[in-house]
Amino acid sequence: MSEIIDVKNLVLIYSDGTKAVDNISFNVQEGEFFGFLGPNGAGKSTTIKILTTLLRKTAGTVSVAGFDLDKQAADIRKIIGVQSQETTVDGDLTGRENITLQGHFHQMDPDEIKKRVNELVGLVGLEAAADRRARNYSGGMKKRLDLATALVHKPKLLFLDEPTTGLDPQSRSTIWSYLEKLNKEEDITIFLTTQYLEEADKLCKRLSIIDSGKIVASGSPVELKREIGADSIRISLENCQRDINKAKELIKSLTDVTQIIDSEECLTVYAKNAGLLIADIVRALDSSDIRIASVTFSSPSLDDVFMKHTGKRIRTEELVKAPSPMWGGARR
Ligand SMILES: Nc1ncnc2c1ncn2[C@@H]1O[C@H](COP(=O)(O)OP(=O)(O)OP(=O)(O)O)[C@@H](O)[C@H]1O
Ligand SMILES: [Mg+2]
Questions:
Q1: 208 and 236 share one domain
Q2: What CATH number is associated with residue 292?
Q3: Dist. CA 83–CA 85, nearest whole Å
Q4: Ligand 1 in contact with 111 (CB < 6 A)?
Q5: CA 308 to chain centroid
Q6: Which among 205, 221, 237 is the end of a domain?
Q7: Are the C-beta atoms of residues 27 and 17 closer than 8 Å to each other?
Q8: Strand (E) or helix (H) holding 104
Q9: Which of 15, 16, 19, 44 is the best mutation target for the ligand 1 pocket, counting ligand atoms within 8 Å of the beta carbon and taking the most?
Q10: Ligand 2 center from residue 186 Cα (angstroms)
Q11: Which of 200, 153, 150, 155 is nearest to 65 (CA)?
């Protein structure tokens, strides 16, 4: 695999003095689904704008598909597709006309545009709405039209700036399917920014986590989460005071337990494979007549990774999930 994006020591300082990108370096391999995960104001859009030639960097070197950003911006523009954070659809035009117009901007042959437009409305599931004015599209439909528009000239590298922000879970997962298809079946390299942990986790083969203009961690979602070390199982006992010591002894003897600590609910067990261990714990306590009030289990998430590196959480609506209770209430 070769590098399709190579960024070294990139800095962007806005005219008011805001340092939005603070000396970042990263690369993206051809064919990769690469992500930039970070909270509001982290510098994601600024980075995309630089890489897509819309904003002039303050310092650093950038090459895209082997072209130097400073000297060969026009060559870069030919091979990239961009979906910006704000939708750019023209409400007076129909979906089909929006895509067609973009084809003309890329100086494509009219017959070719027509064929491509048909393909694209199918790809993003807008057949039924393609001849309606885009003004009347829902938010999700506008995002899908935007995506189709960015794809008209068959870019080999696609930049997506928060393609699902503000969408309902259903539309979000529809867009995820299109993106996976584009990456796998059409071999398009994708650079995606998101503030959704679940989105980065699901789609990106590799990602960088960005905060206050700096990259704080990079790797595959699995690698990054593995660094956290262990899952946690929080156990609440009906009679914690009486049973805690005995419970600790029993749990300590089980394999894969890394640590047991006293915690708010009663005790918390850290383990490599918590999912598998829960049944053993329940069985062990049950056979010694220790009654469990509830057990909750959580695996490390990218939010734990963000927490580890920044001391903060990325808080985004529904996607920071509370651990789900697996057993609750009185037993027996
Ligand atoms: N034109 C501008 N002039 C001055 N500061 C700016 C400008 N545009 C963005 N900024 C600042 O630069 C920083 C990074 O902004 P940017 O838009 O890149 O963040 P982001 O990661 O895309 O955030 P979001 O998730 O909210 O879209 C922020 O502090 C922002 O206020
Ligand atoms: Mg942004």
A1: no
A2: 3.30.70.920
A3: 7
A4: no
A5: 18
A6: 221
A7: no
A8: helix 95-105
A9: 44
A10: 26
A11: 155
Closest residue to atom 11 of ligand 1, CA basis: 20
Full-model pTM: 0.81
pLDDT digits (tens, 9 = 90+) for 33-46: 999 999 999 999 99
CA triplet 35, 177, 155: central angle to 5 degrees?
60
Indicate whether 24 and 127 sit together in one domain. yes
- Which of 47, 112, 134 shows the shortest CA–CA distance to 82? 47
What whole-number distance in Å separates Cα of residue 153 and Cα of residue 78? 8
pLDDT of residue 169: 87
pLDDT one-digit tens code per residue, 108-148:
999 999 999 999 999 888 999 999 999 999 988 999 999 99
The whole-angstrom separation of Cα 68 and Cα 172 is 34
Residue 29 to residue 72: CA distance in whole angstroms: 20
Q: 87 CA to middle of ligand 1, Å?
A: 17
Residues 189 and 282 in one domain: no
294 pocket-lining for ligand 1 (C-beta < 6 Å): no
Domain that includes residue 60, residue range: 3-221
Q: Where are the alpha helices (DSSP H) in 220-318?
A: 221-226, 240-252, 274-287, 302-310
Q: Which atom of ligand 1 is nearest to the CA of 47?
A: 18
As given in the structure block, the two tokens for residue 300 are: 């490390």
- Do 232 and 212 share a domain, yes or no? no
* Placement of tokens 């000297």 in the chain: 71
